[in-house]
Fold this sequence. Notes:
By secondary structure, this protein is α/β, with parallel strands linked by helices. It is 48% helix and 21% strand. It folds into two domains: 3-88, Winged helix-like DNA-binding domain superfamily/Winged helix DNA-binding domain (Arc Repressor Mutant, subunit A), CATH 1.10.10; 94-349, D-Maltodextrin-Binding Protein, domain 2 (3-Layer(aba) Sandwich), CATH 3.40.190.290. The strands form five sheets. The chain has a five-stranded mixed β-sheet. A five-stranded mixed β-sheet has the order 13-10-14-9-15. Strands 1-2 form a two-stranded antiparallel ribbon. The chain is rod-shaped.
Amino acid sequence: MNQLQSMRVFVKVADLGSFVGAAGALDLSTAVVTRHVADLEARLGTRLLNRTTRRLSLTESGRTYLERVRHILDDLEGVEQMVVARNHEPVGTLRIVAPVVFGLHSLAPVVQSYAARYPDVMPDVTLADRHVDLVEEGFDVGILVARHMRSASIVTRRLTTGSMTVCATPAYLAQHGMPTRPEHLLKHPCLSRPSEQGGEERVFSGPDGEVRVRPVNAIAANNTEMLRQFALLGMGVAILPSYLIRRDLASGRLVPLLNDYRLPQIEITIAYPSRLHLPAKVRTFIDHLVEHFQRAGEPARDARIVAAAKPVADALAGTDDPAVPALSREVVRRLPKASRTRIVESSQV
């Protein structure tokens, strides 16, 4: 029989001084209660209770055993209550793993608002651009961009989608010209991740259907923030996540290219070890993530920012003069002040 249950039965018999009373209190038969106590005595090799027709009494061994067992059961109940509380109330350390650039540019505000909402949870964030085994490495929640995670047992939930944007600086375009079709990228130095991480072939969807090109990398880097820095230095045409360059597009530091073409979207997914007995800290963080990105409407905002920057690209594409001084004044007038400044500066390069 179950030793822990036998210990509970013994304590109840000792407290009530009766097998019948303990049976009623525990909703067991008297025979089962008697068997539990007999099994304990057989396991210990000693008598715990003196039995007479009128009453029960503890032996010396029984008194010692009762005292220790009562402490054990009290400690066990306390542990169970603590675990149950942790499963129902957000508390403890929450281990999160996410890709480096996404974490730096999109995750920090979510973690900050979550920590303010649930002060008893301590977020522990790891940023890694490698394949992660969520279960083996002990993470509670992972964020996947393009499936950088390994484990057959994880559960995934779609968070949002991101878009990829082909872009360059106004100064670079003023000097080297504006690519207007994917094939034109073959004539430009491109800034991209190494082929084993991002793939060399790019598949565009456009007015004439699917277009496949293999741009030639001028510089490769395994970190998209580094590629962004190269792009801002005017070193070539970059293909970057829109969430990374949103402010650069809005300010005019970078200009979106090939606006009639689209690259496949990036799936951004939440992953966690199991749906079974999900701790409150994990459940609430997942809900908080989803709520944040639904409220932010990131894909739609990306599209609005690209659309806002499109007049810069249209103006650059519409002139044959690489110095760009003949940009449409009406187009430039509609741009944000920072964007107009960038165009003026680039026209003087």
